[in-house]
């Protein structure tokens, strides 16, 4: 169903959030603003340089990684000791800062573009290839990241830090480098997600779009277990399906704004999960 | 009357058995020292008694009541008080305020009585003159004393002391030891578990000693007997204590 | 602590509003930030938890008045206290529900849980089209009808200014009551070291909830005064404007978190800074605000009054709480 396809991209968007929380124990409340940046990269890439989303994706990945490193040095590292409140507030302010800067630079209007490369018929359902591409990229990234974490030396270092930061140091792991790289990767993947997202929202790009995706990503991340990559991805799929079904049901029930109602429900879901199963719905 | 009874408690972390079937009883006004090398499970045992951890097996009774399922703050209200090894003061509050918290919540006093109790505790440990200082500004030794005052102010029945001697000079240790002895003799009701490496201090204080190794209790009894037990000597690679 | 200086300032400002009504809107705008910082301070300052959905409490207050005026005609002047009471009650109720669930969680999880409150409620109101839905409620005609034209105008200028200042003063009183009771000690312990506090016999959730609901109620009062009474309208886009929590935190951090006088100083500076920005670089207020909060949190976490207090002798400290 189409829910699965967009769900795949939701999962992609959430990967970075989960990673950063797992490694640094920091809840990146500015998450959505990086999605927004990715979206604009895709938009400008396409309209100004005729770059198709795959190319924009690579650019976004690089840009995001750079931004992630910057965020690490400017925000995270100095504030690690000052306490949770300071980091959360600083990140929140950062998110708004980015959104406002975007508004001032690019205007508040809604933008969009369409990348039509045809569609394919899958068992009675018509699927646009562009969307399929987005979903596929998401899957590849998720699996790739998981493999990276499980097979490579650096990946194992990351997992060690997640389990025990002090112990990892004692064993000789450069925890600071792990933090830096995780932040960079996390934000990079998020920005990439923003690019893929644009394939699904032909006219939805605007400076304030981040807020909704921060909320959605947190719901998905908590569902899948904060810090779990495949968990986030699968939860993303679930959420996509849930949203489609919810939208359908709410329209049937005659609500004027079914999309909004589905979001409200997502929030209720978040509260429930945090209350009863804060470690996530499944173990991945 | 038995104040504290610990029955066959086990605590596992993953595959590791930090505390592996420890049992003992403690009477009012009794000093128990729990001795052992690093990693023997002493602090975990303390955490179990305190309620910071819940045991995987076994039960804990305080004044006859089964407290195994109770969270730390409820056990505190029943009369358990804890001083941390690394002092955990509230750095932005004054010395006096730090101790008042102990009296208010451990002891359950009202605000006025709590302030009086706090001042009394501070006088007892010798920190009264510094009561308006911000706790973050004290020296290490003073922080130890503050920690003790805070644990005392609530008039506890059981004081849980976690390696409070570590890092102090011999003079400071002596002073602290005298203070704690005074508490046991004058207040009587407070039984204190001291968790400690340094043999000499332990010997002076304790009525009874428990020696732990890898989560298990390997010796128990009055200091001379427990500390000279062959198993203990092995573990400590030391000479028999005289 | 001796709360007389902050209380005195609020009373003086109230007198000024009555004496010089032409300035009442200006005073209201400054006072809004002060009172907001004051209310936010009671929760964020005392517990060091951050609620990103905080604005919802302002919104509830506003809707309380709005709902009474729109759907319960014929109450006359009584509609005002009834509406305000309803608004405060709704804010407190929301805090009770969200708090009971979310306050058991640790800092970051709590922040995550609250991110959705603001958005969630807004989407509910717009999506289910309740209370005017996306179009909001316009109250001016109802106010003229129920209160009479003269009174209505008075209320929306001097009256609401006085209400906003009253909220600030009330917050000072609340802070005073909390800080001089067991709750004050408990909260100081919980925010400095929650684990140690638990071991010492404190039930953190209980006290966090107290601070949370007090803070929420005050914000409800503020929202009612500022949006409903002063502006005479309640639009979801306005009342759920996420930036207000940022404003609140800016004022609070600028002045000094967990201090009582801090938000007054903070509010004053903040308002005029924004005004300045508005003249020099219009449209950039939000940007500058965010930047300002960011810088303060990183460089001057104690705020102006907070840092000042550190260097005062204990006696003087009492007078600048």
Any chance you could write out the topology, listing elements then pairs?
The complex is a heterotrimer of chains A (284), B (242) and C (321).
Chain A: H1 2-24, H2 31-49, H3 53-79, H4 84-106, E1 119-122, E2 125-128, H5 129-151, H6 153-163, H7 165-170, H8 175-197, H9 210-224, H10 229-252, H11 258-276
Chain B: E1 2-13, E2 16-27, E3 31-35, H1 42-50, E4 57-62, E5 65-66, H2 72-78, E6 80-83, H3 95-106, H4 111-125, H5 140-153, E7 158-162, H6 170-187, E8 191-195, H7 199-205, E9 208-213, E10 216-221, H8 223-228, H9 230-236
Parallel strand pairs in B: 3-8, 3-9, 6-7, 7-8
Antiparallel strand pairs in B: 1-2, 1-4, 4-5, 9-10
Chain C: H1 4-19, H2 24-47, H3 55-71, H4 79-102, H5 107-127, E1 137-138, H6 140-147, H7 149-179, H8 182-192, H9 194-199, H10 204-231, E2 233-234, H11 236-239, H12 243-255, H13 262-280, H14 285-299, H15 303-310, H16 314-319
Antiparallel strand pairs in C: 1-2
Protein traits:
heterotrimer; A: 284 residues; mainly alpha; C: mainly alpha; two-stranded antiparallel ribbon; globular
Architecture overview:
The complex is a heterotrimer of chains A (284), B (242) and C (321). Chain A contains eleven helices and two strands; from the N terminus they run ααααββααααααα. Chain A has 284 residues and is mainly α. A two-stranded antiparallel sheet of chain A has the order 1-2. The radius of gyration of chain B is 18 Å and the shape is globular. With 321 residues, chain C is mainly alpha-helical. Chain C has a two-stranded antiparallel ribbon. In chain C, 60% of the residues are buried. The mean pLDDT of chain C is 85. The interface between B and C is medium-sized, with 28 and 19 residues.
């Amino acid at each position: 169903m189409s829910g699965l396809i967009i769900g795949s991209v939701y999962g992609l968007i959430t990967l970075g959030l989960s990673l950063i929380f797992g490694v640094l124990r920091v809840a990146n409340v500015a998450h959505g603003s990086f999605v927004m940046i990715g979206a604009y990269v895709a938009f400008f890439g396409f309209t100004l340089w005729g770059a198709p989303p795959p190319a924009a994706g690579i650019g976004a990945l690089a840009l995001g990684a750079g931004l992630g490193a910057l965020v690490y040095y400017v925000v995270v590292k100095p504030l690690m000791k000052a306490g949770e409140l300071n980091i959360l507030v600083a990140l929140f302010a950062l998110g708004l800062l980015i959104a406002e800067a975007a508004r001032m630079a690019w205007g508040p209007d809604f933008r969009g573009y369409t990348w039509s490369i045809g569609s394919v018929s899958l068992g009675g359902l018509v699927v646009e290839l562009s969307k399929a591409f987005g979903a596929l990229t998401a899957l590849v990234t998720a699996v790739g990241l998981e493999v990276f974490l499980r097979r490579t030396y650096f990946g194992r270092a990351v997992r060690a830090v997640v389990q025990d930061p002090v112990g990892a140091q004692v064993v000789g792991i450069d925890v600071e480098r792990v933090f830096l790289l995780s932040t960079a990767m996390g934000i990079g993947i998020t920005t990439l997600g923003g690019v893929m997202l644009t394939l699904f929202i032909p006219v939805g790009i605007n400076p304030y779009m981040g807020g909704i995706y921060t909320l959605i990503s947190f719901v998905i991340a908590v569902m899948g277990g904060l810090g779990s990559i495949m968990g986030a991805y699968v939860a993303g799929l679930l959420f996509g399906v849930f949203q489609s079904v919810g939208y359908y049901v709410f329209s049937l029930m005659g609500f004027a704004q079914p999309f909004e109602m589905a979001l409200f429900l997502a929030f209720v879901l978040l509260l429930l999960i945090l209350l009863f199963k804060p470690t996530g719905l499944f173990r991945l | 009357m038995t104040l504290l009874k610990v029955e066959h408690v086990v605590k596992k972390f993953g595959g590791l058995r930090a505390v592996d079937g420890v049992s003992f009883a403690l009477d009012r006004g009794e000093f128990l020292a729990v001795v052992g090398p690093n990693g023997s499970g002493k602090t975990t045992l303390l955490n179990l008694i305190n309620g910071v951890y819940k045991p995987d097996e076994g039960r804990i009774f305080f004044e006859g009541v089964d407290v195994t399922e109770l969270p730390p703050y409820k056990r505190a209200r029943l009369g358990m008080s804890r001083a941390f090894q690394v002092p955990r003061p509230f750095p932005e509050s004054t010395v006096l305020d730090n101790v008042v918290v102990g009296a208010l919540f451990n002891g359950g006093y009202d605000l006025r009585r709590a302030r009086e109790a706090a001042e009394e505790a501070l006088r007892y440990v010798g920190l009264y003159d510094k009561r308006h200082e911000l706790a973050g500004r004290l020296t290490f030794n003073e922080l130890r004393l503050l920690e003790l005052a805070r644990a005392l102010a609530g008039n506890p029945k059981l004081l849980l002391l976690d390696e409070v001697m570590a890092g102090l000079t011999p003079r400071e240790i002596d002073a602290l030891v005298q203070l704690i002895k005074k508490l046991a003799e004058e207040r009587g009701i407070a039984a204190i578990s001291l968790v400690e490496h340094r043999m000499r201090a332990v010997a002076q204080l304790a009525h009874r000693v428990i020696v732990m190794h890898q989560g298990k209790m390997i010796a128990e009894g009055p200091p001379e007997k427990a500390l000279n037990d062959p198993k203990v000597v092995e573990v400590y690679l030391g000479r028999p204590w005289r | 602590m001796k709360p007389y200086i902050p209380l005195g300032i609020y009373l003086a400002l109230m007198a000024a509003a009555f004496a010089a009504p032409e300035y009442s809107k200006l005073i209201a705008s400054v006072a809004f930030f002060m009172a907001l910082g004051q209310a936010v301070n009671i929760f964020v300052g005392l517990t060091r938890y951050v609620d990103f959905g905080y604005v919802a409490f302002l919104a509830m207050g506003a809707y309380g008045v709005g709902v009474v005026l729109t759907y319960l005609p014929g109450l006359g002047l009584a509609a005002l206290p009834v509406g305000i009471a309803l608004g405060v009650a709704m804010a407190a109720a929301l805090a009770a529900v969200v708090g009971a669930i979310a306050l058991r969680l640790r800092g970051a999880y709590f922040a995550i849980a609250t991110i959705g409150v603001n958005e969630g409620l807004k989407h509910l109101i717009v999506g289910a089209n309740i209370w005017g839905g996306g179009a909001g409620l316009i109250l001016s005609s109802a106010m003229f009808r129920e209160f009479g034209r003269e009174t209505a105008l008075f209320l929306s200028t001097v009256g609401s200014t006085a209400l906003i200042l009253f909220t600030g003063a009330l917050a000072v009183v609340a802070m005073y009551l909390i800080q001089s009771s067991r709750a004050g000690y408990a909260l100081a312990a919980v925010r400095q070291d929650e684990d140690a506090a638990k071991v010492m016999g404190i039930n953190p959730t209980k006290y966090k909830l107290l601070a949370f609901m007090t803070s929420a109620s005050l914000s409800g009062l503020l929202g009612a005064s500022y949006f409903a009474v002063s502006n005479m309208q309640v639009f979801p886009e306005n009342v759920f404007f996420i930036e207000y929590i940022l404003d609140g935190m800016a004022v609070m951090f600028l002045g000094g978190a967990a201090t009582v006088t801090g938000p007054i100083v903070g509010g004053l500076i903040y308002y005029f800074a924004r005004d300045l920005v508005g003249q020099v670089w219009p449209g950039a207020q939000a940007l500058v605000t965010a930047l300002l909060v960011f810088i303060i949190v990183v460089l001057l976490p104690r705020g102006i009054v907070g840092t000042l207090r550190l260097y005062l002798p204990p006696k003087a400290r009492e007078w600048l709480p």
